[in-house]
Amino acid sequence: MATQPATGQQQQQPLLVLSTCPDDDTAARLARALVEERLAACVNRLPLTASTYRWQGQVVEEGEVLLLIKTVADRYPALAERLAVLHPYQVPEIIALPVADGLPGYLEWMVAQTRG
Question: Considering the entire predicted model, what is its pTM?
């Protein structure tokens, strides 16, 4: 079955992308790169996130910085690829969530900021 091309509205679907970083310097570097490259309209850095996860057979508990990355669907593939390249983790958290609703002016701003 052939895939239908995305409509303009689907391409501009706002997304919230989550990613964690080992420290604030890394988080700031990644945030700046994503915004400068117009892959994200805005990135919030939330410090002192306590993370508990299993990695290589061990349960790990450590502090991380959570990135809240605002983008649109048609920029997500490039954002995910670039974030994976820039990120120091072997397997970085990159999770995209659709934004169900928001202030129309803000959502329009997100679209405008992710255009070249």
Answer: 0.90
